[in-house]
Input
Amino acid sequence: MEQDVLAKFKELFGGEGDIGVYFAPGRVNMIGEHTDYNGGHVFPCALTIGTYGVVRKREDHKLRFYSMNFEELGILEASIDDLKPEKDADWTNYPKGVIWAFGEKGMKVDSGMDLLLFGNIPNGSGLSSSASVEVLTGYILKSLYGFDVTNQDLALIGQYSENHFNGVNCGIMDQFAIAMGKQGHAIFLDTATLDYTYAPIKLENAKIVISCSNKKRGLGDSKYNERRSECETALAELQQVVGINSLGDLTEEQFEQYKSAIKDEVRVKRAKHAVYENQRTMKAVEALKNNDVKLFGELMNASHVSLRDDYEVTGVELDTLVEEAWKIDGVIGSRMTGAGFGGCTVSIVKDEAVDTFIEEVGKAYKDKIGYAADFYVVEIGDGPRKLA
Output
């Protein structure tokens, strides 16, 4: 892959000068969905698929961007002197946002660059192609301009740029999982404090399979911000009767005790999901520590039911993928992953059932939805790095 992106860069931008090749992974969240902005725990891991970047510093202030995923857009230009989000700028709003965010944090980028990207994460899949681009851009800026930042800083800068430049009110999980990825491990992250531990994912005789619904969705224009606002209102109502900073502070029992303070049935359901999902995530990590993959799978299944019924972010595409997965012998657990409203599911499937899973779930999905899903058997990989 490195040679392909390098060759394309040289074809478009010329081969002279100091050219670097970089990579940042995508991520999948195993469990703990829509908890990251509710002060709860998440359990994501970085993948071996992700975003490749080829870059060269310029002498002037010009930014030239090209994506091999959106070749029809050609080379898109901008300037470091005029960084603002623009509809016509399309995907380049993500790297521009990170350059802007570095400046906001006192790290001014003083010259332009030529940047070519290629992602082998399915676009719009919920595997965090946008956060992958943000962390990759941050890692490149650190490398090119010598900024003194840690990978954890890169996660926070990526989130800041997405919140304040791109207007998506995302939590910290995606950027953190990508910036802090570790091969063979998922990250048990307390999103309220950023305390984290690495937990080995030992799936003897089983694989992680991502099923991509191919239903496109955009986070900014989805109901993501609406769900977030419903939870914030529910939290404010609960704070009238109990001393908490976030929904993640409550146990299931405490929630049941105080939920009557929430004045709207829909908000009760939203808050219930945030509380119960956080507890499920903690139980799931404990199950893995005890090598109880069966219990981990059961908690994944329960997570999907809650996302479907209480949080209402699944939709017919994701429900079909998950419900068909549950019918297959050898599926340990399956759930939607990511923001929802399209995107992907994540399943743990026994080795001998993987082919059957892809064939049967794929057929049932196409019959019901009318177009095909894509399937990826994935490995857990490391965080961002320079390749060449």
User: Anything to note?
Assistant: The chain is about 40% helix and 20% strand.
